[in-house]
Amino acid sequence: MSLAQTTAAFAAQTQMSATVQAVVDTIFGRIRSGEYAVDERLPSERTLSSDLGVARNTVREALEVLESHGLIRRRAGSGSFVNPQTKGAPQPSHSEIAASSSPLDLQVIRGILEPDMVRLAVVNMPPRDIEALGEILSQMEAVQTDADAFVRIEEAFYRKIAAGTGNPLIAGCYDLVIDACRQSFRTAQLRRHLTPARIEDYQKRYNSLFNAIASRDTDAAVEYIKLHLIEEQRQLLHEP
Amino acid sequence: MSLAQTTAAFAAQTQMSATVQAVVDTIFGRIRSGEYAVDERLPSERTLSSDLGVARNTVREALEVLESHGLIRRRAGSGSFVNPQTKGAPQPSHSEIAASSSPLDLQVIRGILEPDMVRLAVVNMPPRDIEALGEILSQMEAVQTDADAFVRIEEAFYRKIAAGTGNPLIAGCYDLVIDACRQSFRTAQLRRHLTPARIEDYQKRYNSLFNAIASRDTDAAVEYIKLHLIEEQRQLLHEP
DNA sequence: CGGTTGAATTGGTTCATACCAAAGGAACCG
DNA sequence: CGGTTCCTTTGGTATGAACCAATTCAACCG
């Protein structure tokens, strides 16, 4: 097919099959280059399908991506049209934000939020919540090989800490981060490298973090979370 | 098919075809009722397809919805599994978060986000966006008495900086902060005290901040935003 | 008993087709 | 000229089939 020569135009932060990605890139490139001008009707799905040599289903998947990003609008019976570039983002949804974030973006915001988040949690977390956090930690330490289970419990662990700050805004921001984490392709890859040894490593670190929180040792807790972040960044850089 | 009797179980926030919605509701109901227990493998897509009397593609669409909402996880070659229910609020909306945040919460998260946000914006903001930011500043400086207009433009100013980081997650988090800011009663009160003199004060500070950003002076920009934050906190404490 | 192999199962992707409903336009009629 | 009708085009939905890749697990072999 004639999709190969497209310059990677539309970053695919979400997992997307190569074929669909290629179609998205092709059409996005034609919009960007002005081949399809603003408010112009682009070729029908059936035409694109035969022109690009892919099935109409595939074309539709690509158009759905472009529509969800606000680049085109579609009207049954009429056609698909190029949208004028919107200036201000009209409140993108959680999943849209998460989908358009790179693993680096993720590490950056985590580096900003997590240290202060932990600091506030140490000070503000009620004893009952610390108990609950310990419960979660126990569940996490019971995991030995099941990477999926570990990641799920890890998520609950972080969420509990975020809630422990007592600041709904921080918890809300961190929800966004967790969503992005879940959708990150690269992060999914990292999970593949969650060997039992690595899981044990994580467990030790989270255990230290929990003990620091439980004993209200702010500085230690912040240090542990910073160390953990640095370690994760190292993995992100040094592994496949 | 046996999909009719499902009680509207799963709110369909996005547009979704009736058939897919019915399958989603059915499976969601079975999870909720415990028919599919936590961590249990639910029937294969092909089995569900024939049991529910719909095509496998349709089942897959439904499963994608459930997966995107975090209710199930899927692994190729293994199967689809029910996720443990996350206890906390099921993704509170922006406005809910904003409504339950105190002015102190607001200042805290701003203190965490804004310095690093400015730092990243100084480094990453493209010249074109800096130009646009200058345009916004000009509009802001044209205001003399209209407090409402000033606050609106101020919001655009911050939003532009957040976008300038190039990090959608930061921009997304900051959207949350701005929403909370808008709804904050106390902040609204403060606006009443936005006298012309005070507006001029703000304009000077934002002008300094902009110049620091435009000349790529990271340290100065961060200092200005910190000063600004401290000043706002002072007002919050010392005024009615 | 431990490791390997290979078939069967499962989700992931693409394709071809059919039919529906909305929109548009041309032909027609008043 | 205005409206109606009817056919065509377009996106929207659903189906069934085929193949791929990851996973599982039982049978097998050393």
From TrEMBL, chains A, B:
Pfam annotation, one family: GntR
Biased composition (Polar residues): 80-100
Keywords assigned by UniProt, alphabetized: DNA-binding, Transcription, Transcription regulation
GO MF annotation terms: DNA binding; DNA-binding transcription factor activity
Residue stretches making up the HTH gntR-type domain: 17-85
SUPFAM superfamilies, alphabetized: GntR ligand-binding domain-like, Winged helix' DNA-binding domain
Region (Disordered): 77-100
PROSITE patterns: HTH_GNTR
Name used for this protein in its record: FadR family transcriptional regulator
